[in-house]
Amino acid sequence: MQMLFFQSDGMKIGTNIHPEDWNGFVAYLGTGNDALNVEAGIWQYDTAASVAVAISNEMIEFIGLNFAQVTELRPYVFTYTNSKMTIWTDAETVQSNGQAL
Prior knowledge:
Layout: E1 3-6, E2 24-28, E3 35-38, E4 44-45, H1 57-63, H2 67-71, E5 74-80, E6 83-89, E7 93-96, E8 99-100
Parallel strand pairs: 2-6, 3-7
Antiparallel strand pairs: 1-2, 4-5, 5-6, 7-8
C-alpha cells in the first residue's frame, strides 16, 4: 500500500479538518524495502530542527492509517529561511535531491 498526503489536500467534509494547516507531508509506502527521494529544491534537510507539526489523531483519521502504521513513520524536517516542513515516512531509504539522509 502506498499513500501520500500533503498539506494542500482538500478539507475532509464532515470533520472540518483543514490539512493545509499541517505544514507537512505523510508518505506511507507500506511493506518492503522502500525508497523516498525528496526533490527539495532550495529546502534543506535539517537534523537539528524540531518537527514542524506532530501527527494528531485528526490527521491519522484523515489519512486512514492505523496505530501500527503510524508507529512506523519517522520525521524528516526541511527548512528554508524561516519556514519549515516535516515529511513523515516509513521508507527504509530516504534521500534529498538524490543524496542519502
